[in-house]
Amino acid sequence: MENIDPQHTESGEAPKPIEQDYESHKEDPGPAKPAVTEKDENGAGQALKWVIPIAVIIGLIIWFAMRK
Q1: Of the four, 4, 15, 56, 68, which is 20 to 30 A from 35 by CA?
Q2: Which residue blocks in the chain are alpha helix, DSSP H?
Q3: What's the predicted TM-score (pTM) here?
């Protein structure tokens, strides 16, 4: 754990602004506009709203059945 890559540490600075001119900032670009503004309409969260409760219920049923 001593070899921590310094690129992946929190600095407390404000995030870089959205990249507008990539050519002039090739060495140190900011995030692209779609990466910041894209809506997560069909993400995994929609599926997990149903999968996690069902898995918990099935787990509880199995646990109660094995307990006796």
Answers
A1: 4
A2: 33-37, 44-67
A3: 0.42
